[in-house]
Amino acid sequence: MVDKLDAATRAALPQLLPEWRLVEGRDAIARSFRFPDFSAAWGFMSRVALLAEAQDHHPEWSNVWNRVEILLTTHDAGGLSMRDIRLAQAIDRLLA
Ligand code: H2B
């Protein structure tokens, strides 16, 4: 079982992950991405997939042509955990 985020970390989310938003009705964070075209979007998804596999932590996500939507939550915790923050920060670093 994975621990859910503690209150202090939860309160710091806007500073830790300014590009991510809390999802209405779920204990999850999400970010929308837009790329020049499908190829760029898919390339990004391939890199995220490798990160996710390395971290054994898998996003809920979708792609429509140049757009990618990523939602992170920890199924084993029933909500947000440090595993989501770790993957979100790694995803952000891909684009830095
Ligand atoms: N991904 C996410 N987002 N949450 C999990 O709890 C999770 C996962 N658990 N990927 C992992 C895989 C677990 O089910 C396996 C058995 O390692």
Task: Provide an overview of this structure.
This protein is an alpha+beta fold and 96 residues long. It has four helices and four strands; from the N terminus they run ααββαββα. It has a four-stranded antiparallel beta sheet with strand order 1-2-4-3, covered by helices on one side. A hairpin with a 2-residue loop joins strand 3 and strand 4. Helix 3 packs antiparallel against helix 4. The longest helix has 18 residues. It is globular, with a radius of gyration of 13 Å. The termini are far apart. The model has no long low-confidence stretch (mean pLDDT 98). Ligand H2B binds next to loops.
SSE topology sketch:
Blueprint lengths: L6 H5 L1 H4 L4 E2 L6 E6 L3 H18 L4 E5 L2 E6 L9 H14 L1
Antiparallel strand pairs: 1-2, 2-4, 3-4
Helix pairs in contact: 3-4
Ligand H2B binds next to loops.
Briefly, what is this?
43% of the residues lie in helices and 20% in strands.
The number of distinct helices, counting runs of at least 4 residues, comes to 4
Strand order of the largest sheet: 1-2-4-3
Structural class: alpha+beta
Largest sheet geometry: 4 strands, antiparallel
Cα end-to-end separation: 32 Å
Average residue pLDDT? 98
Query: In percent terms, what proportion of residues is strand?
Result: 15-25%
Q: Got a strand count?
A: 4
Poorly predicted regions are: none
Rg from alpha-carbon coordinates: 13 Å
